[in-house]
Amino acid sequence: MLQEHSKVPILPILKGDAYGHGAPVVSAFLKSRGYGLLGVSSLEEALSILQITPVRLLVLTPPLLDQLAPLLQHRLLATITSASIIPHLGRIAKERRQYVTVHVKVDTGFGRLGAAPDELVDLVRQIQKTPYLRLGGVFTHFSVAFSDTRYTQQQLRTFLALKDQLTKMGTYPDLLWHAANSAAFLTLPASHLDLVRLGTLLYGQSPVSLDPPWDLAETWQFKTRIIEIRTLPKGHSVGYGRLFRTKETTRIGVIPVGYGLGLELEPQSTPWRQIKQALGKGLKGQHFVFHPQGPLPILGRVGMGLTSVDLTRTPDIQVGDEVYVAMRRVTASAHVPRFYYQNGAIKCIYWNHKIFSHGQWKTSSRGLFAKESLLHYDSAPDAHSRCGQ
Ligand SMILES: Cc1ncc(COP(=O)(O)O)c(C=O)c1O
pTM of this prediction? Predict the structure, then answer.
């Protein structure tokens, strides 16, 4: 388990619907494993978790004015990045006679969210003198911990200097100072501080290459099924825009997955990657779809709900066969049911923001994603409690 690798507590990050895994289920699981505080990216995400799993949540983005009331109502921990929100938060907290814990985010070089380093002391003082506000922590975020240790060390030095400054002021002995994400956790132990905020690593991937004893488990697989197979003659066009034409008699298979469910929505990280992808598309199609018998090149343009793949070299594949789609987990739509397995058996399903229990499904529905989803399921009252363990 990940905690065994860390001397300091882990704050699991559940941004992006737990990196696509279904945040309510993941939070129930983590809670059952003893994690007391989880990090989310927005109020909405926090509420979607709390509907199913009561747990303490730190919202990692600063609230807007009209989010302060629900923030307090749901007892969330808030991120503060500027002084302007403090009087408003203080006023609502006082009206409700409710203490709010806040963490201040400081920008040590990321260039996105956060107070500037030289604003921190004032900001902290203002929080301190506002009744009902409690300063729980100060944090920063690294931008290149996966590739540039020097820059990350520089960010860390800035952060530690602020820590020294506040510590010398003497009034904040219990503050949690946190900085490390997965990459910094692996590459820069000095950044571990009071807790580490882990996302990528928690979900079985590493931002940097790893040696034993690391043995990360794959947590995600996107499966769908072939819904139609046809043979097209040489010179036939495939799909919208007629971008692809067969160069020989071609056996095509159709899968019920397209950009509407997230296929091909992964960010184009570099211009070079974009060029490579564009070339790949034009020349021979992309290998985003796989079958144990081999990769299945995508033919033509990915549609909203349907995509064609080349089955010419895999003649044994039949209608109804399962194939794997290399789709980024965070881009896979919430309309795709998530199946959770334990010891090889399905434990529960998360679909359209609801948890369904194994054993409750009945008649055949569409079965588009995996053989298991052939089944039409009803929500079970005890699904949630069974799912999270
Ligand atoms: C503020 C913050 N902390 C921690 C993380 C976790 O990062 P990682 O997935 O690299 O562990 C994120 C993710 O983007 C984040 O925004």
Answer: 0.85
